Amino acid sequence: xxxxxxxxxxxxxxxxxxxxxxxxxxxxxxxxxxxxxxxxxxxxxxxxxxxxxxxxxxxxxxxxxxxxxxxxxxxxxxxxxxxxxxxxxxxxxxxxxxxxxxxxxxxxxxxxxxxxxxxxxxxxxxxxxxxxxxxxxxxxxxxxxxxxxxxxxxxxxxxxxxxxxxxxxxxxxxxxxxxxxxxxxxxxxxxxxxxxxxxxxxxxxxxxxxxxxxxxxxxxxxxxxxxxxxxxxxxxxxxxxxxxxxxxxxxxxxxxxxxxxxxxxxxxxxxxxxxxxxxxxxxxxxxxxxxxxxxxxxxx
Amino acid sequence: xxxxxxxxxxxxxxxxxxxxxxxxxxxxxxxxxxxxxxxxxxxxxxxxxxxxxxxxxxxxxxxxxxxxxxxxxxxxxxxxxxxxxxxxxxxxxxxxxxxxxxxxxxxxxxxxxxxxxxxxxxxxxxxxxxxxxxxxxxxxxxxxxxxxxxxxxxxxxxxxxxxxxxxxxxxxxxxxxxxxxxxxxxxxxxxxxxxxxxxxxxxxxxxxxxxxxxxxxxxxxxxxxxxxxxxxxxxxxxxxxxxxxxxxxxxxxxxxxxxxxxxxxxxxxxxxxxxxxxxxxxxxxxxxxxxxxxxxxxxxxxxxxxxxxxxxxxxxxxxxxxxxxxxxxxx
Lengths: 300, 331
Fold this sequence. Notes:
The complex is a heterodimer of chains A (300) and B (331).
Chain A: H1 2-42, E1 44-48, E2 53-57, H2 61-69, H3 73-103, H4 109-116, H5 118-122, H6 125-139, H7 142-151, H8 157-166, H9 171-182, H10 184-189, H11 192-203, H12 207-215, H13 220-249, H14 252-262, H15 267-295
Antiparallel strand pairs in A: 1-2
Helix pairs in contact in A: 1-15, 2-15, 3-11, 3-13, 6-7, 8-9, 11-13, 13-15, 14-15
Chain B: H1 4-53, H2 75-84, H3 86-117, H4 123-135, H5 139-150, H6 157-162, H7 174-181, H8 188-201, H9 204-212, H10 217-228, H11 230-246, H12 249-254, H13 261-266, H14 268-280, H15 291-327
């Protein structure tokens, strides 16, 4: 009897392995092996031969080259990281705000939702590239194209600066708000999925909680901070991680690593850069995840 | 005397009600302004492109025209379609995107179910590895993957049977088809996670009763679990479709010469510059195409590229939101 039940559970686990088999094969051959290879590449010089490639071990030279010799890598990496640090709070704040907005009942909510999620569909690197290329052709220089694009906003941020400055808000914070206002299109465009996740979280908050709060005399503002915010806080962690990964997925660094590999044909250097990039991203993710998960409130 | 207090209270009550009503009205006006503003920011580029697509080149230099053109024309669309070779391109792209989407959804559903309902040695470690595939930037794997598909040879089987070195799969659809089919393609980790979360939320009794009635594990999955998993299937299908359609990273890595929308649209401005003079019949002369006209065609081409997605979105946008809500990603 005991033996039989053992084989049954063994059968179950075999079946489970059968289900994940496609993924397992893919993982072993198309993730793990390239993953290990790329570590190897980053310590070697890679020369592409007509059939296959030749590797020669050169130690830490690639890393040294990327940090000390390459003129752009350091700059682009720090730029991407600072931009991410700038963008994540903005996107998070905006998406939570938009989700709360879309969660309340009003006429035309279905239409508003449809419009708010349009960026999920339209956010595409290729289209952006083509658009800016079109502008460059129009004006003949990328500098002017950028200025022209900024001018098209038709908004003078100095007004905002003077209003905020006169109301006594510290200068660093004003700068942040003004950047946020200037980048509003970029922020809205990259917060589609985050709004979707927050919206789903908001819908799962039991309405009885709000009823009790209302009876006890809590204002809408109070019930947002005392009920809504703690209840969606686990999803803040999810969204922060998603935003960080997403902002790195099509950042300049990725582009630069790609160019190093396929335009300058320096595969080893590119692998070293990719590895340093991965390490930086992982450190950020671990730190952020640790800090936020300490503060998150889990209802269940 | 005694009538005075209720009167006072009644006034107070009416005042409070009026105040509540007033703040409610104010809030809803404020909300509409916000929503309209954000919607405007989102829709403006699309509206501009639509306006440009139907605008006659005559209207470019007329400063009195803002959005609605005076002289309508279909010429821009015709030229852009000509440069893009639109219908064959769209057909090709659709074929590619739909097949990778279906493969990715199928393989991720299988893996998600496997991780949700079965415990086998190392299942937790393996799932942690799924999360790792989400977190590792794709640029890390780029070079080895490229070399891998340049000479595709699993365990040296090809060499064993034909004696030749691996097969060059670059510039075919195989790299994307293989990665999607093996649940390791574009954002596949995320899709596995979505399926796992959903299947874990389903009651176990459904499967148990199916097992008792004599259905095997595979049959239970296909006849009982999959029909119940419509929300995550829709979510994954939609996201996979959209991301695959817009993806430039993998397409330019593996298929830089292929006839795919994302690849073509990235090089579209250069193509327009090159081909427009010929289409306008001024090639070989001193005349050059007006750069404003070129940028008009580029905008029209971009609109043509996103048009299929927008049309699709008009039909499925309701599912888009609702299925994510019902998927249970939230926990």
